[in-house]
């Protein structure tokens, strides 16, 4: 790659894809932001999350209450954390240098990148199952390709290769083409979901037996499970609460990002969750048991047209969430690690390669492991969210010296590139929030791990950080397009 680093900037901290987006190129509207979120919220993991809530003992209506609280909290966290991206046009991996220092920032950036690749792998394998179902329907003898390699059969390897190729094709068209893809994919997925819901309402002659199922939780047990459910739902998107500037940097105004996220996040989630519950209710009537896995449902219905169209919808839903929520942030995080060697295209290709090494087929059906990962992720990324909010709003007072974020030895450098208050707050918050996963005596913390992480990270960071900005930062701030 040709070196286009501006004079005075460190080439180890800068490349064209990490540079602030100029105001003229911040052209995403509230509609773009809303459809991006529509595409992300409609995915297999979120669809099946309602099953996890009902397994805890909630009624269908209580599930909606849990979802409402979780997504409103997420919306508020993302609204405030997105502001720096919209105001300054910088991605998460650059913004985080303000709190952690240019070298210290690699710690949360690598954690976020790991999580993004993990979720890319999980979502892609779910889509692989859908592709396998489609090809088994269309091609006689497809399932007979049963030679096993590294724990997975040949026909699944071929289906996975096709899914990986589709991701590469979409991501290879760049960020602005991704926006156009989501403009179609998000509304299309919800339209197909509505058709499935109408079918389910006809089968069940109403919402179905799941909505008639009473709650099994009361008193203290209810509130304990409620906290656990809210934290689990937040855990699905805890990674994005951190790196929302990766998207908001392309939005033309604060108003657009707020309206777009309000429509695309809590509103869409509250529409999508009952869709999943109603559709699963219909499976209880037809098959005598609830089927929450959409791929299993397609195979059980055993109708070629439904399998092909339904499978294609699942693939589209997975592509829409993976490209924006996982490949894009992971690519930025990898670029931040090696800006001189990686641009967006190279980094996104590397994400695809690394995703294979997570071998999701080895543990995909182990729901307990996935939920444990969710809780640990929420516990570790909660402090990062708290530190970012405390740094931008209370320590920096929403004023950033953008050129200094791309230089070493400046006032964001801390001690040799590491800012001790952020590192101490991150470590303490992560340990406290995750302690319940490993120490039975502290298991109650697990129900509020993300909240504990946010509060601890923010509190310790504020206690250790100076209250006043250096005078030169205030004088040099000139946010572009603010």
Structure characterization notes:
By secondary structure, the protein is mainly alpha-helical. It has one domain: Hydantoin permease, CATH 1.10.4160.10. 69% of the residues lie in helices and 1% in strands. The chain has a two-stranded antiparallel ribbon. A hairpin with a 2-residue loop joins strand 1 and strand 2 (152-153). The longest helix is centred in the middle third of the chain and has 34 residues, at 254-287. The protein starts with 29 loop residues before the first helix and ends in a 6-residue tail after the last helix. The model is unreliable at 469-482 (pLDDT under 50).
Topology of helices and strands:
Blueprint: H1 30-41, H2 44-55, H3 60-88, H4 92-95, H5 97-100, H6 106-138, E1 148-149, E2 152-153, H7 154-171, H8 174-204, H9 209-212, H10 219-243, H11 245-248, H12 254-287, H13 294-301, H14 304-337, H15 344-356, H16 367-395, H17 420-434, H18 449-464, H19 471-476
Antiparallel strand pairs: 1-2
Give me the side-by-side strand order of the main sheet.
1-2
Mean pLDDT: 84
Strand count, sense and closure of the main sheet? 2 strands, antiparallel
- CATH class membership: Mainly Alpha
The multimeric state of the shown protein is single chain
Give the total of domains.
1
What is the CATH superfamily classification? Answer: Hydantoin permease
Radius of gyration: 23 Å
| CATH level 3 topology | Hydantoin permease
How many β-strand runs? 2
The assigned structural class equals mainly alpha
Using the 3D structure, state the CATH architecture. Answer: Orthogonal Bundle
Shape: globular
For the termini, the CA-CA separation is 31 Å
Beta-strand residue percentage: under 5%
Which consecutive residue ranges, at least 5 long each, have pLDDT under 50?
Answer: 469-482
Helices and strands, in order, run as: HHHHHHEEHHHHHHHHHHHHH
GO molecular function: nucleobase transmembrane transporter activity
Pfam family, one: Transp_cyt_pur
Transmembrane segments: 63-82, 118-142, 154-171, 183-201, 221-242, 263-288, 308-332, 344-364, 370-395, 416-439, 445-464
Protein name: NCS1 family nucleobase:cation symporter-1
């Amino acid at each position: 790659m040709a070196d286009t680093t501006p004079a005075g900037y460190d080439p180890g901290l800068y490349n064209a894809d990490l540079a602030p987006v100029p105001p003229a190129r911040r052209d995403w509207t509230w509609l773009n932001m809303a459809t991006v979120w529509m595409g992300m919220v409609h995915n297999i993991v979120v669809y099946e999350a309602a099953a996890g809530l009902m397994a805890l003992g909630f009624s269908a209506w209580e599930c909606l209450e849990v979802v409402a609280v979780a997504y409103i909290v997420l919306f508020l966290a993302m609204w405030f954390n997105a502001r720096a991206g919209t105001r300054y046009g910088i991605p998460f991996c650059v913004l985080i240098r303000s709190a952690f220092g240019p070298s210290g920032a690699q710690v949360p950036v690598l954690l976020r990148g790991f999580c993004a690749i993990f979720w890319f792998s999980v979502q892609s394998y779910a889509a692989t199952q859908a592709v396998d179902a489609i090809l088994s329907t269309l091609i006689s003898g497809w399932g007979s390709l049963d030679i096993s390699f590294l724990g997975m059969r040949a026909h699944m390897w071929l289906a996975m290769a096709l899914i990986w190729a589709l991701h590469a094709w979409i991501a290879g068209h760049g960020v602005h083409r991704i926006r156009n893809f989501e403009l179609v994919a998000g509304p299309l997925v919800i339209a197909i979901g509505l058709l499935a819901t109408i079918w389910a309402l006809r089968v069940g002659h109403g919402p179905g037996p799941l909505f008639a199922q009473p709650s099994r939780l009361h008193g203290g047990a209810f509130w304990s499970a409620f906290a656990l459910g809210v934290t689990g739902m937040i855990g699905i998107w805890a990674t994005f609460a951190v790196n929302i500037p990766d998207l908001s940097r392309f939005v033309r105004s604060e108003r657009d990002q707020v309206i777009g996220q309000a429509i695309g996040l809590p509103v869409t989630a509250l529409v999508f969750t009952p869709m999943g519950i109603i559709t699963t209710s219909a499976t209880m009537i037809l098959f005598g048991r609830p089927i929450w896995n959409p791929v299993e449902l397609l195979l059980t219905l055993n109708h070629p047209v439904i399998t092909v169209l339904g499978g294609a919808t699942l693939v589209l839903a997975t592509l829409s969430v993976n490209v924006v929520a996982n490949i894009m942030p992971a690519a930025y995080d990898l670029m931040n690690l090696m800006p001189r060697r990686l641009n967006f295209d190279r980094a996104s290709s590397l994400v695809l390669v690394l995703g294979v090494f997570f071998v999701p087929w080895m543990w995909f059906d182990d729901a307990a492991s996935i939920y444990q990962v969710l809780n640990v992720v929420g516990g570790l990324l909660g402090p990062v969210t708290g530190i970012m909010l405390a740094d931008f709003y209370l320590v920096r007072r929403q004023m950033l010296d953008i050129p200094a974020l791309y230089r070493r030895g400046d006032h964001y450098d801390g001690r040799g590139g590491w800012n001790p208050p952020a590192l101490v707050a991150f470590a303490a918050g992560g340990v406290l929030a995750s302690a319940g996963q490993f120490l039975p005596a502290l298991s109650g913390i697990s129900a509020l791990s993300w909240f504990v992480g946010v509060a601890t990270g923010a509190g310790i960071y504020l206690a250790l950080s100076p209250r006043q900005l250096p005078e030169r930062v205030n004088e040099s701030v000139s946010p572009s397009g603010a």
